[in-house]
Amino acid sequence: MKLDIRKTAVWVEETLTEMGKSIDPPTRKAVAVAVIANPFADKYVEDLTPLMDMGAALGAILGDRCVAALGIKPEAAESYGKAAMVGESGELEHAAAILHPKLGGPLRRAVEKGAALVPSSKKMGGPGQDLDVPLGHKDAAYVRSHFDGIEVRMNDAPRRNEILVAVAVTDSGRPLPRVGGLGHADAEGNDGLR
How many helices (H) and strands (E) does the chain have? Predict the structure, then answer.
C-alpha cells in the first residue's frame, strides 16, 4: 500500500534564555510532521501491516529531517520522541500501528544508536488540535534532564480521514536541568536504561 503524504512541516525550537539566565549553547528541539491519508478510515481492518510499513518509512523520513534541521551529525542527537493523531474516521489503533512495530528502527538509524525506548503518545483529534510529542534520552532512559516534550499543531490536519505523524529529535536536554539523576555525559546506553 502506497504512503500518501499530503503535506510535511519541520520546526526547530531554540531556547536562548530561561529565567533570566543565558543558555549557552542554546537547547534545540526539532520536530518533523507528515500528514498522511489513512487507508483504513471508516472501516475496521484486522491486519494493520500496511500502516506498520508506513511507520517504517516515516521513521526514516522524519528522523532524517529532524537531524538535518538541527544541522548536527546523527550521533550528536541526544533525545527523541514520536506521536500520532488520528482523524475522526480512524481509530486509535491506527496510530499505534504507525508508531510501534516499525517506526523506531529507522528513527534509531537516523540518530545513530538509540538504545532506549522511543517515548510516544497517540490520540484522536481534528484540524488545529495540539499534539504533544514526549521526549526522552535516546540511549539511557534514566537521564532525567532529557524528560521533556514539544507540542505541534497544524491548522488543517488531521482531517477526518488522515493521520498526523510527528517525530522529534533534540541536540540537548532541558534548559537549566537540576533535578539530579544520571547525566548525559555519564550515560552508557548499553541497556537502554543507564
Answer: 3, 7
Average pLDDT over residues 126-142: 97
Domain architecture of the chain: domains with CATH: 5-186 (3.30.1330.110)
Cell 526547530 sits at which residue?
12
- Is the pLDDT at 1 greater than 90? The verdict is no
DSSP letter for 118, please: P
Q: Give, for 111, the enclosing helix (H) or strand (E).
A: helix 104-111
For residue 83, count CB atoms less than 10 angstroms from its CB and return exposed for 0-12, middle for 13-18, buried for 19 or more. buried
Compute the average pLDDT of residues 82-106: 97
Question: 150, 133 in Cβ contact below 8 A?
Answer: yes
